[in-house]
Amino acid sequence: MNKSWLQYKKTISILLGVGATWAMPPHYQVWILFICFGWLMNMLTKATSAKQVFALGYWFGFGFFAIGFSWVANALAIDIKSFWWLIPIALSASGAFFGIFVAVPALVSYFFRGIWAKIIVFSVLWGLGEWLRSFLLTGFPWNLLGSALAFDYRLLQWASILGTYGLSVIVMLIVTIPVAAIKGSKTNILIATLVEIVLLSGIIGFGLYRTNALDNNELSDLKIRLVQPSIPQSMKWDFGELEHNFADYIEMSQSAGFETIDAVIWGETASTFPLALDRTHFYQVLPAVPDDGFLITGSIDYYPADDDRWLPINAGLVLRHGKGIVDSYAKSHLVPFGEYIPFRKFIPAKLRPITKVIADFRAGHGVKTIHTDKLPPFGILICYEIIFPHQVANAKDRPQWLINLTNDGWYGKSSGPYQHLVTAQLRAVEEGLTVVRAANSGISALISRNGKILASIALHKRGILDIVLPKQLDVGTLYSQYGNLIFGIMAALLLVLAVYFSRLQKS
Predict the structure, then answer these.
(1) Helix 31-46 and helix 159-183: axis angle, to 10°?
(2) Residues 491 and 442 occupy one common structural domain
(3) What is the CB-side half-sphere exposure of residue 211 using CA atoms within 13 A?
(4) Which DSSP letter does residue 405 get?
(5) Under 8 Å CB-to-CB from 25, ≥6 apart: which residues?
(6) Which run of H or of E encompasses 75?
(7) What is the H or E stretch that residue 62 is in?
(8) Per-residue pLDDT band at 355 (split at 50, 70, 90)
(9) Residue 331 is among the residues annotated as catalytic for this protein
(10) What is the mean pLDDT of residues 360-389?
(11) Which one of 8, 187, 372, 388 has the lowest number of neighbouring Cβ atoms within 10 Å?
C-alpha cells in the first residue's frame, strides 16, 4: 500500500465528512452532499484494497460525526472550569466510535463489482447503520441523513411509509448516482439521469400529494399554552434560583388570556421540586392550573428502591384542576452519562458527575397513553425519547397526539436544538401524529401530523405560545402500522439488485 497516497486521502475524507455536516439542520446546504459523498464514492471506486476503503470510510465518518455531534460539547461547557479538558475527548470519541458506521458500508461495497452495485450497497448499508444506531449501546439515532430534507416538510413525506431510515437511503442514492454517470458510458449517463429524475420526482410528487391532502385541517376548540422561560442552564439547577425559576413558570402561565386556556404545558424538569411528594410546592403550583383544565409539566419525582434508597425519576405529571395529579409518566429511555452512568463502578469517582444533574435515575416502563376527561388521548415523551423512530407511541393503546417535554438549554446556541426539533417533525410524519413540543429554552412548537411547523417560539426567546389543537390530530400511516418492515423489504430488494449488477459486471 502506498502510505503517502492513503494519508493524503484520509485527510480529504475527514474534510469531506466535515463538509457533509453543512447539509444537516439548521444549515440545509444539501447541494454539498453531492460533492462530499460523490467525491467519497469516487475515491472508494479507485481504492485498491479493502484496507484502503475501510480507512477512507472511517475517516469520512470520523469528520461527519465528530462535527455533527459537536453540540454535545456545550453540555460540558456548562461547567467549563471542571470539564474543559473533556470537550476534545468527547468530540474525538464521537467520531472514533460512529466512524465505524461509514467504514463498514464502504468496506462491504468494495467486494461488489461495478459502480451501480457499489452505490446501492453503500446507500442501503448507510440506512441499516442508522437503524443499528437506534439500539446499539442504548441507541443514539441522531442526525439521520433523511433529516437533511427538513428544510421543506413536504420532502419528508416518504417517512410515512419507509421511515427516516428509508428516507436516508433515498437521499444517499440521489447524491451518489451522479458518480455512475461520470464514470460510465453514454448508456450509464442516460440510466443515471432517468433514475435521478424518478427519485427526485417521487420525493417531490408524493410530498405535494400527501401534504395537499392533509394540510387542510379544521381547528378544535382546545387551546393550549406553551411556556418557555428560557432559563439559562447555569441557573436552572442553582439552589439560589430554584424558587425564583418555579415562580417564573407560574407567573408566565397566568399571563393575559389564561382564563381561555384548556391546558398549560411546561418543559422537562420545569419543576425541580418533586410535586408528588413536596406538598408546599404542590399547593404553590395550583394557580397555574387553568379552571376546568390541566397543567402538564416535567418534574423531578422519586421512587423507593429495594435497598431503602429513593431513586430520582425524570417525570411528566398531569395535574387536573380540583383533582391534583391525575396521571404521570416516567422517562424510560435515559441519557447515558447524563441521567445514569454506564459501568459506574468502573469509573473514577471524580468523573462521575460529568454534568450537574442527579445521576442514577430510575427508568420507567416504556411509552404509555394518557386518557383524561377532556383532552384527546396523548403520550408524553421526555427530551431525546423523541429521536427514536417507531418507539414513541404505544401500539396497543395508540395516542392521538404526542407531547415532547424537553430542556435544550444544555446545548446553548448550537445546532443541537434545531436538530432535536427536526426529529420531532420526522416522528410526526412517521406516526401521523400531531406533536406539541415544550422546551425550556426553545424551540417550543406545534407540529402537524404531516410534519409542518404550525407555530413556534424561537430558540432562547422568552415567551408563551397559545395554540389551538387541530380538529383531526392523527392520520394512519404505513410506518406506524408496520414499523421498519417496509424499509427492511426495500433494503433486501436493493441488495438483491446490487448482487445482480455485480454478477452482470463480472460476466
Answers:
(1) 60
(2) no
(3) 21
(4) E
(5) 147, 148, 150, 151, 415, 418, 419, 421, 422
(6) helix 72-77
(7) helix 50-68
(8) very low
(9) yes
(10) 93
(11) 187
Instruction: Tell the residue number behind the cell numbers 437503524, with chain if given.
Output: 131
Task: Please state which of the ranges 62-71, 207-216, 219-228, 230-239 shows the lowest mean pLDDT.
Answer: 230-239
Active site residue 218: no
Residue 476 resides in a domain = no
Q: Which H/E stretch holds residue 215? A: helix 186-215
Residue 478 falls inside a structural domain: no
- DSSP code of 344? G
C-beta separation of 285 from 327 below 8 A: no
- CA distance linking residue 27 with residue 11, whole number of Å: 23
Please state whether the peptide bond connecting residue 470 to the residue before it is cis, i.e. omega within 30 degrees of 0. Answer: no
What average pLDDT score do residues 346-375 get? 73
Q: Please tell me the least confidently modeled range out of 303-317, 362-376, 386-400.
A: 303-317
From 130, 268, 385, 431, active-site residue: 268
Least reliable range by pLDDT among 152-161, 184-193, 369-378: 184-193
How many domains is the chain built from? Answer: 2
Mean pLDDT on 111-123: 96
Catalytic residue among 331, 368, 385, 431: 331
Given strand 369-370, what is the order of strands in its sheet?
369-370, 378-382, 401-406, 434-439, 445-447, 453-456
Q: Are residues 207 and 254 in the same domain?
A: no
CA-based torsion, 211, 28, 407, 393: positive or negative: positive
236 is annotated as an active-site residue: no
Alpha helix positions (H), 227-300:
233-236, 242-253, 279-285
Same domain assignment for residues 148 and 244: no
Note down the domain range covering 55: 3-214+484-506
**Length of the chain, please?**
507
pLDDT of residue 76: 61
Average pLDDT (495-500) is 96
Residue 477 lies in a domain: no
Q: Which of 9, 339, 383, 430 is catalytic?
A: 383
223 and 201 within one domain? no
Residues paired with residue 378 on neighbouring β-strands, in sequence order = 370, 401
pLDDT digits (tens, 9 = 90+) for 141-150: 999 999 999 9
Mean of the per-residue pLDDT values of the chain: 90
**DSSP reduced 3-state for 224:** strand
Burial class (CB in 10 A: 0-12, 13-18, 19+), 402: buried
